């Protein structure tokens, strides 16, 4: 088997072959590392690699596999589902002894003092972590261009963005650099890049996954979730990281279902769950500014789900238009408080001048990038004396109304169905000088964060040769319904031609002459 | 809602302890004004009787038993410190002049049993 074949496997297929002995964990890792080594100069999906640590983990996984095979089927079945499988981590996840930068100069050279809870879970599950992925600084952005070390390209068109802020994780999974990756989603940072790269991305319910050891952006909105190339793989990764953790007081003591085993392998059976399900189509999500190609793909998918047995009802979420302003007050306000800790005293970048005030100004002024400064300014202003009531308190009240819209909709329907992003991937640089245009990228995803709900983005075809995402929004802690519906959509569309296509620009990644994303080719 | 003056922007930057260049100040002034215009839409909603939502799930205060547990060692906790002397972080001088010879103010390392830390109760 060539390395290309190995990297094309889904994680659940890798799991099967690891158990039969057809492939080893080390062999899987080496295939992925070789691809990363050969291609990342042109993609920039990876922030840092840990080949030595990953090789040691893969060798341990292989040893356990050999032992389990000799002990018999029961021992093999007892191995956790991601045993021996590569999983990339967004560089917002702190890992012990490894660079943990949040994509920021202010954490350049910083190495984690401990493992985030989800990193511990992944280690315990036998997963192999090849490295950390690139991202918008402190997860603030929708394009993975606000990066201290250069933007990430989209494997479908290297001149376009992969979405953000988890663009490195999305691009890595789309380009077969890893079958699975962890991202974070504060306003759409998993779902929007999943849509723009043709991958599956799930933002779990607020409280579903522990944020202990995840570098904080906006603490009432942040969640951690999986990227994958199909819904079953996303379910496997969610199952490993979900659940209560005493170190995160907002992590919910809710039972975690065995997501993956409840998803049907057989397409006919998978589509069966659609029968009698009520799906709500929110009128307000088909907004002005939505590309016709995106709207067409989404409406076609809705029609096919209806033909397969789902009942489609139009619903109203009347406060949707206030979502953007609400989010862009609450998130920066929380960010301005969270980012106060970067003061150059205990860790991270430190400019020492002999005067403490100048130290703060210089450390933060030179350590943070333009978007992070913008958000800190917005948040500080919204929380400052005289403006707190007009901005922050007002936004929290509107948040109540937005959440109530969803509560009412879920009295009528099992899930909502909508576009993930109003547009396909846009060209690098196109929205960099217009923050408001960039913020509008998340108009369809951020209400979910404001209300603390779960959302899944699954690919639903192409528009102008670029991927379009279908978003499913569920009740709090009902990720299972979203995964079942996503799996049903995969079954319904299993024979579509677009499902056979690999990202268009993969051959260019193999060319050593292809420049880094955003860099003009040599004349 | 209000529009920001350049002085307002500089004041907010100071409150946030962000050192900005003149160019950054100019650019942010225009951009922040444009973003604040987007917020104006919220003022059109009557929210007098609506309670605020700061957190979307019920969060109880969870207390653990007050027993010592393993924690980071001093070396691990200080591994990222920009400046360190012994078991201490060196912080910028906040009051008065910085002493010329830092070694002169370095405290003696604690003698065993002198700290009321968790180990003493074990």
Layout of helices and strands:
The complex is a heterodimer of chains A (523) and B (122).
Chain A: H1 3-7, H2 11-20, H3 25-43, E1 46-49, H4 51-71, H5 73-78, E2 87-90, H6 117-124, E3 131-133, H7 167-174, E4 180-184, H8 191-197, E5 200-203, E6 224-228, H9 231-241, H10 267-272, E7 278-282, H11 292-307, E8 311-315, H12 323-338, H13 356-367, H14 370-383, H15 389-412, E9 415-419, H16 435-439, H17 446-451, E10 454-463, E11 466-474, H18 479-492, H19 506-509
Chain B: H1 6-15, H2 22-39, H3 74-78, E1 84-85, E2 88-89, H4 118-121
Write structural notes for this entry:
- The complex is a heterodimer of chains A (523) and B (122).
- Chain A is of the alpha/beta class and 523 residues long.
- Chain A has one domain (3-322, 399-500): Amidase signature (AS) enzymes, CATH 3.90.1300.
- Chain A has helices at residues 3-7, 11-20, 25-43, 51-71, 73-78, 117-124, 167-174, 191-197, 231-241, 267-272, 292-307, 323-338, 356-367, 370-383, 389-412, 435-439, 446-451, 479-492, 506-509; strands spanning 46-49, 87-90, 131-133, 180-184, 200-203, 224-228, 278-282, 311-315, 415-419, 454-463, 466-474.
- In chain A, α3 packs antiparallel against α4, α9 packs antiparallel against α18 and α12 crosses α15 (389-412).
- Chain A starts with a helix and ends in a 14-residue tail after the last helix.
- Chain B is mainly alpha-helical.
- Chain B contains 4 helices and 2 strands; from the N terminus they run αααββα.
- Chain B has helices at 6-15, 22-39, 74-78, 118-121, and strands spanning 84-85, 88-89.
- At the A-B interface, α12, α13, α14, α15 and α16 of A face α1 and α2 of B.
Rg of chain B, Cα atoms, Å: 25 Å
Give the class of chain A from helix and strand content and strand pairing.
alpha/beta
Intertermini distance of chain B: 59 Å
Low-pLDDT segments of chain B: 103-122
Radius of gyration over C-alpha positions of chain A, nearest whole angstrom: 22 Å
- Quote the beta fraction of chain A: 5-15%
Could you name the CATH topology of chain A?
Amidase signature (AS) enzymes
Q: SSE order of chain B in H/E notation?
A: HHHEEH
Name the shape of chain B in a single word: flat
Strand order of the largest sheet of chain A: 1-3-2-4-6-5-10-11-9-7-8
CATH topology description of the domain at 6-44 in chain B:
Histone, subunit A
CATH superfamily of chain A: Amidase signature (AS) domain
Q: Give the percentage of residues in beta strands of chain B.
A: under 5%
């Amino acid at each position: 088997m060539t390395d290309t074949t190995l990297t094309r496997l889904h994680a659940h297929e890798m799991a099967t072959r690891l158990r039969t002995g057809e492939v080893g964990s080390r062999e899987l890792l080496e295939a992925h590392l070789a691809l990363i080594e050969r291609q990342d100069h042109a993609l920039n999906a990876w922030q840092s690699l840990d080949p030595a640590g990953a090789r040691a983990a893969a060798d341990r996984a292989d040893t356990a596999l050999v032992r389990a095979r000799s002990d018999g089927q029961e021992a093999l079945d007892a191995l956790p589902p991601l045993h021996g499988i590569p999983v990339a981590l967004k560089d917002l996840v702190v890992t012990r002894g490894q660079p943990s930068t949040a994509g920021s100069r202010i954490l350049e050279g910083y190495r984690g003092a401990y493992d985030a809870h989800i990193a511990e879970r992944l280690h315990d599950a036998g997963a192999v972590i090849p490295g950390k992925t690139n991202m918008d600084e402190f997860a603030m952005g929708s394009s993975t261009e606000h990066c201290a070390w250069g933007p990430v390209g989209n494997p479908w068109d290297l001149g376009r963005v992969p979405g953000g802020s988890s663009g490195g994780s999305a691009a890595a999974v789309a380009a077969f650099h890893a079958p699975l990756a962890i991202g974070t989603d504060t306003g759409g940072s998993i779902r929007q890049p999943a849509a723009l790269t043709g991958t599956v991305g799930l933002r779990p319910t607020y409280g579903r996954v522990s944020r202990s050891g995840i570098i904080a952006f906006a603490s009432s909105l942040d969640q951690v979730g999986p990227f994958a190339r199909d819904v079953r793989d996303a379910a496997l990764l969610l199952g490993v990281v979900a659940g209560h953790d005493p170190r995160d007081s907002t992590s919910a003591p809710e039972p975690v279902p065995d997501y993956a085993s409840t998803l049907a392998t057989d397409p006919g059976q998978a589509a069966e769950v659609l029968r009698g399900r009520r799906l709500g189509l929110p009128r307000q999500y088909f907004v002005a500014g939505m590309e016709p190609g995106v709207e067409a793909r989404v409406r076609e998918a809705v029609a096919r789900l209806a033909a397969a047995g789902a009942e489609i009802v139009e619903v109203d979420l009347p406060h949707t238009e206030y979502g953007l302003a609400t989010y862009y007050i609450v998130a920066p306000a929380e960010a301005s408080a969270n980012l106060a800790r970067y003061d150059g005293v205990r860790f991270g970048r430190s400019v020492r001048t002999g005067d403490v005030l100048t130290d703060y100004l210089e450390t933060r002024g030179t350590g943070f990038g333009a978007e992070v400064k913008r958000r800190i300014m917005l948040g500080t202003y919204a929380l400052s004396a005289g403006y707190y009531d007009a901005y922050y308190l007002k936004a929290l009240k509107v948040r109540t109304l937005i959440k109530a819209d969803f509560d009412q909709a879920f009295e009528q329907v099992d899930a909502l169905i909508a576009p993930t992003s109003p547009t396909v991937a846009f060209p690098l640089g196109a929205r960099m000088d217009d923050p408001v245009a960039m913020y509008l990228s998340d108009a369809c995803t951020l209400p979910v964060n404001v209300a603390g709900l779960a959302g899944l983005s699954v690919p639903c075809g192409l528009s102008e040769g670029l991927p379009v995402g279908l978003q499913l929004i569920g009740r709090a802690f009902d990720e299972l319904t979203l995964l079942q519906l996503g799996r049903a959509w995969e079954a319904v569309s299993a024979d579509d031609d677009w499902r056979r296509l690999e990202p268009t620009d993969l051959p260019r990644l193999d060319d050593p002459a292809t420049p880094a994303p955003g860099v003009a080719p040599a004349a | 809602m209000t529009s920001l003056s350049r002085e307002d922007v500089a004041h907010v930057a100071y409150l946030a302890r962000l050192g900005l260049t003149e160019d950054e100040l100019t650019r942010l002034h225009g951009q922040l004004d444009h973003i604040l215009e987007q917020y104006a839409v919220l003022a059109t909603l009557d929210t007098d009787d609506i309670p605020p939502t700061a957190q979307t799930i019920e969060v109880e205060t969870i207390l653990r038993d007050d027993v010592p547990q393993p924690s980071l060692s001093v070396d691990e906790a200080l591994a990222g410190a920009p400046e360190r002397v012994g078991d201490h972080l060196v912080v910028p001088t906040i009051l008065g002049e910085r002493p010329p010879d830092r070694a002169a103010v370095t405290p003696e390392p604690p003698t065993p049993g002198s700290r009321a830390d968790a180990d003493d109760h074990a």
